[in-house]
Amino acid sequence: QVQLVEAGGGSVQAGGSLRLSCRCTYATNYMAWFRRAPGKEREGVAAIYGGDVYTYYANTVKGRFTISRDNAKNTVYLAMNNLNPEDTGMYYCAAGLADIGGGPLAARTYTSWGQGTQVTVSS
Fold this sequence. Notes:
Helices cover 0% and strands 50% of the residues.
């Protein structure tokens, strides 16, 4: 399995920005970020796949978050701008080989998960 290590979480005020990074032992086709807010189910946030040709975002973050990948460094990034308190949660990096049904933000697409990094946005 791919080993994933996230970094970059922290505490910011509403309107602020953070950039998360996820270092992988090796690259896979599908890479994504998920999050779990307190008291809520895990939610797919952003995915990158198809040789980095395609990106996909949850409606809640579209226009504010950007996923990207540096294949030379086996690292995936999530740039988060205009953060709001609803973005608070534990953010997880995930790696997968193929979409087996459900789409690029379906958890079952991913077979390897990181330990998570906490993001806290205060109002």
